[in-house]
Amino acid sequence: NAEDLDKVYSFAIKLARVAGRMLLDSAEQRYIPDGNREVQGLSEKDSSVDIVTKTDEDVESFIKTSIAQQYPEHRFIGEESYSKGASKRYLIDDGPTWCVDPLDGTVNYTHLFPMFCVSIGFVLNSRPIIGVVYAPFLGQLFTARAGHGAWLNEKQRLPLVRDPIPPIPSEAPRNCIFSCEWGKDRRDHPDSNLHRKVESFITMAAEQSGREGKGGMVHGVRCLGSATMDLAYTAMGSFDIWWEGGCWEWDVAAGICILQEAGGLVTAANPPDDVENCSIENAKLGSRLYLAIRPAGPSPNETG
Ligand code: IPD
């Protein structure tokens, strides 16, 4: 019921704040005068770009334990538990499930690039209905609850851009800011995600893209290094479009809730062709392919 969800929401915010403090403390410990930038307990998972640190594990263990104490009947899916085989993917069904990335943007964190965050999504009936994302280095807390809007630092309603917000240009991605990630598939093969992405960057950016009325002269292509932050920035209205192939549920559960509550769209599709046909029904956790569009038109009604 609504009262229970209020409690889950407050609890998720409390967890994110403590977890964010843990991320910040561990990052700050690395600003040491002798210039030693070694990262504690860093190890590789599938490749040298798929990495985990002791901080990812400590923060996930804190969040997982806290949830198990407070809500022993709820399920938990976390990036690091999954990597160790302790939680399974596709566990998402109608039951209450927490979907957590303790540190999204691990590579950024290891390089002390501030675009990293803790991402806590709460999923019910297979839908992310609560999303809390905290980027402690930036001091940005994004929160959302189904039907209650999306917020920055619990004060400013998302999107932040003027109201009413113009729709993204009909010639999108021309004149848009587009965000995408390099991802972890680095195979030098024409069918790899990496090749598909690089080719799409060129199609979107080049003056003569060869596509009639499509592509060409995108205002900018950005790679933040965190899928969660991409969704949060699309919800803010800072990005027009975000696209990524290869995400996991924990990368997107919280961000999808925040984006949808801000009035944005997320679907499983490819840019640039599918931008106009973006349909929210396809926004399923587990699709691994996501195309997000920033809010447009008047802000969604505020109900709480
Ligand atoms: C990754 C980041 C990255 C995205 C990958 C994610 P991690 O998460 O969000 O930007 O391209 O798909 O897995 O490993 O930093 O938690």
UniProtKB/TrEMBL annotation:
Recorded family membership: Belongs to the inositol monophosphatase superfamily.
Protein name per its UniProtKB record: Inositol-1-monophosphatase
PANTHER family, alphabetized: INOSITOL MONOPHOSPHATASE, PROTEIN QUTG
CDD domains assigned: IMPase
Substrates-to-products reaction catalysed: a myo-inositol phosphate + H2O = myo-inositol + phosphate
GO MF term list: inositol monophosphate 1-phosphatase activity; metal ion binding
Enzyme class, broadest EC rank: hydrolase
Keywords: Hydrolase, Magnesium, Metal-binding, Quinate metabolism
Cofactor requirement: Mg(2+)
Presence of keyword Iron-sulfur: no
A GO biological-process term: phosphatidylinositol phosphate biosynthetic process
Taxonomic lineage from the root: Eukaryota, Fungi, Dikarya, Ascomycota, Pezizomycotina
Annotated EC: 3.1.3.25
Species: Lineolata rhizophorae
Signal peptide: none
Metabolic or biological pathway: Polyol metabolism; myo-inositol biosynthesis; myo-inositol from D-glucose 6-phosphate: step 2/2
Residues that, per the record, bind Mg(2+): E79, D101, L103, D104, D251
